[in-house]
Automatic annotation (TrEMBL):
<dbReference type="Pfam" id="PF00652">
    <property type="entry name" value="Ricin_B_lectin"/>
</dbReference>
<protein>
    <submittedName>
        <fullName>Unplaced genomic scaffold K443scaffold_184, whole genome shotgun sequence</fullName>
    </submittedName>
</protein>
<feature type="region of interest" description="Disordered">
    <location>
        <begin position="390"/>
        <end position="416"/>
    </location>
</feature>
<feature type="domain" description="Ricin B lectin">
    <location>
        <begin position="28"/>
        <end position="156"/>
    </location>
</feature>
<dbReference type="InterPro" id="IPR035992">
    <property type="entry name" value="Ricin_B-like_lectins"/>
</dbReference>
<keyword id="KW-0732">Signal</keyword>
<dbReference type="InterPro" id="IPR000772">
    <property type="entry name" value="Ricin_B_lectin"/>
</dbReference>
<feature type="signal peptide">
    <location>
        <begin position="1"/>
        <end position="21"/>
    </location>
</feature>
<feature type="compositionally biased region" description="Basic and acidic residues">
    <location>
        <begin position="394"/>
        <end position="406"/>
    </location>
</feature>
Length: 416
């Protein structure tokens, strides 16, 4: 607990100094997706000057690969995201134009804290015109407004084009291949079902609070380049899909995945104290709301004996995956079934947003600490006898045929 409290203190200091971050935490050529996580990406309609910037289904084409270089956002190497004629009126459409030094129409500032892309010095934000999510809808600038879903842009990657490392200073890798290894440094996790999910845990034994920046993926499925959770470590697993998130909760013996006995654990999420996330460069994918879809908002706790992991989509993602309550643990943040001896897949209702009680919001450290919300209702639960390591079905993620024939073995399947 001590390290968690210290972390919260350090986090508050860092927060104060890092709000000026001007680019996404992620590096390289990025997809810019709308808040709805509906597979719509910012797209240049061609590579000529004056080409409209629109929404299109994400394909990972060159026209959707945006690179943040200082204060500009470039595509096709030398074209910049540009406010047409520099017109400062709400509703001015965006275009691409050849980049030129210090061109005021091409200056942008991305905030990792509220995921907005702001036209520098103008208080105008990149905005989905009319909130219309159809292909071809042009993108505009509009006066920035707090938590406006039309102005919220996630930065990420196609699952089939993951970079070796998504962030500077990253311990491991995101492009993990199709094998499995208990020394893997893979930092790409999946959350699909009670028998298909991963946890963040240390690469070598060490308290979560001391290793949070370097946690690696430990999964129930082999074949995604990660480590596998040794059979017998999971004692109970409860997966639920709700309208706005997937969540897995449960108990086990996580000394088997390098969490020291007695460690009360800690919290991992997509922002971390400095906007880079814990682990740094950690990416989360799943198939529940779309095949191979990236979850941009997620929160997870693990200790020596329990875990919880929630990954959110849609306009409620930041409130339902709020990760500011980092000393409050699983039961308070994600009230749910944690029972040992049951392995199940359910559907359920959204939980109430953590920390929100009617019209008031509680902040960690304020006395008194309010009770956890009740666990939301779930239904249609299908139980599994247990959860042990088995091969990932590749087809659902990438269109490939199944690579492995036989499930059920202790430990990992080597790469073919
Ligand atoms: C800026 O855009 C507004 C709204 O479209 C338009 O009325 C105005 O004439 C434009 N200003 C300039 C200088 O082009």
């Amino acid at each position: 607990m001590r390290s968690l409290l210290l972390e919260a203190f350090v986090a508050s200091l860092l927060l104060a100094t890092s709000v000026e971050a001007q680019t996404p935490a992620f590096q390289g050529e990025l997809l810019l997706q709308t808040v709805l996580n509906n597979g719509k990406c910012l797209t240049a309609s061609s590579n000529t000057n004056g080409a409209a910037v629109t929404l299109q289904g994400c394909t990972g084409a060159a026209a959707q690969k945006w690179t943040f270089t200082g204060t500009t956002v470039t595509v096709f190497g030398n074209k910049c995201l540009d406010v047409t004629d520099g017109n400062n009126s709400d509703g001015t459409k965006l275009q691409i134009w050849t980049c030129s030094a210090n061109n005021a129409n091409q200056q942008w500032q991305y905030s990792v804290w509220d995921n907005t892309l702001k036209w520098t010095n103008k208080n105008k934000c990149m905005d989905v015109t009319g909130g219309v999510q159809s292909d071809g809808n042009r993108i505009q600038v509009w006066t920035c407004s707090y938590k406006n879903p039309n102005q919220f842009w996630n930065a990420g990657y196609m699952v089939n084009a993951l970079p070796a490392q998504s962030q500077n200073g990253q311990y491991g890798t995101n492009n993990c291949g199709t094998g499995s290894s208990q020394t893997s440094k893979c930092q790409t996790v999946w959350i699909n079902a009670a028998d298909d999910f991963c946890l963040w845990a240390p690469p070598t034994p060490g308290a979560i609070g001391d290793t949070e920046q370097i946690e690696v993926a430990w999964c129930t499925k082999s074949g995604r380049g990660t480590r596998t959770i040794p059979n017998g470590a999971l004692k109970g697993v409860h997966f639920v899909k709700t309208p706005d998130y997937v969540q897995v909760t449960g108990v086990g013996d996580f000394t088997k995945i390098n969490v020291p006995k007695g460690d009360s654990g800690g919290e991992l999420d997509n922002r971390g104290a400095d906007g880079r996330g814990n682990p740094i460069g950690g990416l989360v994918y799943g198939n529940s709301f779309g095949t191979g879809q990236q979850y941009h908002e997620w929160t997870s706790f693990i200790s020596d004996g329990e875990f919880c992991f929630r990954a959110c989509v849609g306009p409620k993602a930041t409130s339902l995956c709020n990760h500011i309550y980092d000393v409050m643990g699983c039961y308070w943040n994600m009230p749910a079934n944690y029972n040992a001896g049951t392995f199940e897949n359910c559907v359920g209702d959204d939980a109430l947003p953590m920390g929100v009680y009617g019209t008031s919001t509680w902040y960690q450290g304020t006395k008194p600490t309010p009770a956890a919300h009740p666990a939301p209702a779930s239904s249609g639960c299908k139980t599994l006898p247990t959860v042990s390591v088995s091969p990932a079905l590749r087809r659902r993620e990438s269109g490939f045929e199944r690579r492995y024939e036989d499930p059920a073995f202790p430990g990992a399947t080597p790469a073919p």
